[in-house]
Amino acid sequence: MNRLEAKENFNHAIENEKAEFENFFLSKFFGLQFDYQEENCIVSLVSKDFMFNPQGSLHGGVIVFILDVSMGHLCKRHLGTAVTLEMNTQYLRPVGEGEIYCKSSFIKKGRKIIALKSDLFNEKGKLAATATATWLKAE
């Protein structure tokens, strides 16, 4: 594991985090980049070995984190703050080291309940995980 790289990411996050969307500590630590296209949120990053599980691929918890963040930021951008009520994730193939991205979209926008979908693509551009989730608009 490249501990120096993990330490650099940690220090960068401490120095640059803000308690706001796109700039919170974990987004800075993992190096998340955000892009919005119509009603999609695209979150990209470079996966690194300090994010991996002992089997040598991106940890499932990191994958779920990225999927969740992409949906939360999409909600914030178009509907305001919302919270995750439930999330179902399917892991389809491993994610190695390199550039990866996640793309979220709305399935249904209700008055209070929102259904979303997010897909994560590995360093080879292949679908590696997908999630659907139900969110509640914050009041």
What do you see in this structure?
With 139 residues, this protein is an alpha+beta fold. The protein has a single domain, classed as Hotdog Thioesterase (Thiol Ester Dehydrase, Chain A, Roll). 28% of the residues lie in helices and 40% in strands. It is built from three helices and six strands. A six-stranded antiparallel β-sheet has the order 1-2-4-5-6-3, with helices on one face. It is globular and about 45 Å long. The relative contact order is 0.18. The mean pLDDT is 96.
Q: What characteristic shape results from the CA principal axes?
A: globular
Structural class of the helix and strand makeup?
alpha+beta
Please tell me how large the radius of gyration is.
15 Å
Helix content: 25-40%
CATH homologous superfamily label: Hotdog Thioesterase
CATH hierarchy class name: Alpha Beta
CATH topology: Thiol Ester Dehydrase, Chain A
Number of domains: 1
Domain Thioesterase: 55-128
Pfam families: 4HBT
Protein name: PaaI family thioesterase
InterPro entries: HotDog_dom_sf, PAAI_dom, Thioestr_dom
Descriptive keywords:
139 residues, alpha+beta, Thiol Ester Dehydrase, Chain A, 6-stranded antiparallel β-sheet, 3 helices, 28% helix, globular
Write the SSE topology.
Elements: H1 3-16, H2 25-30, E1 33-37, E2 40-47, H3 60-78, E3 82-91, E4 98-109, E5 113-121, E6 127-137
Antiparallel strand pairs: 1-2, 2-4, 3-6, 4-5, 5-6
